[in-house]
Amino acid sequence: MYYSRALVPDSYGGAYTILWYGRSWVQRFNQDGIPCWDEWVELSANGAHEQWYINSTKSTDNCLIVLYLDVQFTAVPELGRGEFHIQKIDSSGTKLWGDQGIIFTNSDLSGQNNIDQIYGLQARLIPSNYGGCFVVWTDYRDVTGWGYHPDLYCQKFSSDGEIEWQEYGIFIDSDVENIWTMHRDQFSGFDVIYGPPIKLQKVDESGLLIHGAGGIQSQVATANINWFTFNPNGEIFFVDGQHNIYKTDNEFLPIWPINGIHLNYNTGYYKGIKADSQGGACLYMEDTRNGTPGLYFQSIDSDGNFLSGDSGAWVFPGLGTYTTFTKCGDNSFFLTQQVNHQQYVDRVDFNGVSVWGGNVLLCTKGTNYPPGKPLAVTDGAGGLIYLFDDGTNMWLSKVDAAGNLGSYVTVAPEVNKPESFHLSAFPNPFNPTTTIRYTLPENGRVTVTIYDQLGRRVNQ
After folding, report:
1. Span 313-357, pLDDT tens digits
2. CA-based Rg of the chain, rounded to a whole angstrom?
3. Which domains are delineated in the chain?
4. Which one of 30, 32, 163, 333 is most buried, by most CB atoms within 10 A?
């Protein structure tokens, strides 16, 4: 079956959906759950490679920009080749940046020939002000020796897909393990937080590193950070492993106490943190306080005061899985969780009080397997669009602003699968070759992948 990789609002009440199974496909669904395009758009037509979805965003001209890693495996199981591609797709399903997208770093340049290294590559993107985007990514082009993390680079693309900075990107820092978050600033540039140790870099629209190569290090907590978020002013909120929340300015200098504000939780796990529009932040987490498990919501104002009581507002019973935390435009929030094959959603205000007077049952699909991790985005009108799987199929649903649940729509591209295949003989030391014959309902691209008895990929 396919795996959900992204759900991006389209500004018209619907959403772009990206599914992955070896390769990646894109479809746009309107506000009624009807596909807008006659066919799913495949990110790359190169059937000999895999396309690993990395990240996506909606551009300021209402198109979809997708970042993915094109991976080619070799006959040697430990080796492969990887190239970062970026593609822009308009609302009618047309690829705007070429059939294969734009390759902005390649395997020869980046030194990515070890599968473990390829698995460890990261990248993020955010829209720029003029229909293009900013990208940050890691690669190994100048890394020598074993045990070192890759270096961090950035690039800017115009609305037409032109590379606007140095051809192979601008170096930000070395030995980077994680890219945590990006934020478009108020001056047409962006901020990126990465590490460890936790560092911040500001890049202006011309590609100038405001803090110089290496960035600046956090002046407060330096380890065990779980979540980061920016507010529109560029102020930063984050939570550490000791249940302390911090607020800093855009130079990483503390606004709240340098040791943070302690949250009254027992043995909880954070599910997310969101900045509000008034200088504060909201948290969603599960906790087992007093032996009673549940999911809780906490609001903190701009001065660091709790608005949902010392312990937060109780939202859902039990310790759910596959939660989502989505901000609505009117300073309310959608919270979802799954318990025993049932998926629930509630919409709460800034104080954690339910707008709907209680949670809504999203679905009970998935009797053999727990439904997979869902994705959720707002529809722009106070409702929520929800993508999930039940172990067999992918489903799309919607809850309107009043909490009314719509119908389910199954989503999956139609792939030209072989009707039959035949092996002339299994390879062995006396017969080292074999012929694989297959028939298709109609002509199309085919990927043939060979595995050994241990399940290792040996050729493709």
Report:
1. 888 876 666 788 999 877 899 988 877 667 888 899 988 899 998
2. 23
3. 3-343 (2.130.10), 423-460 (no CATH)
4. 333
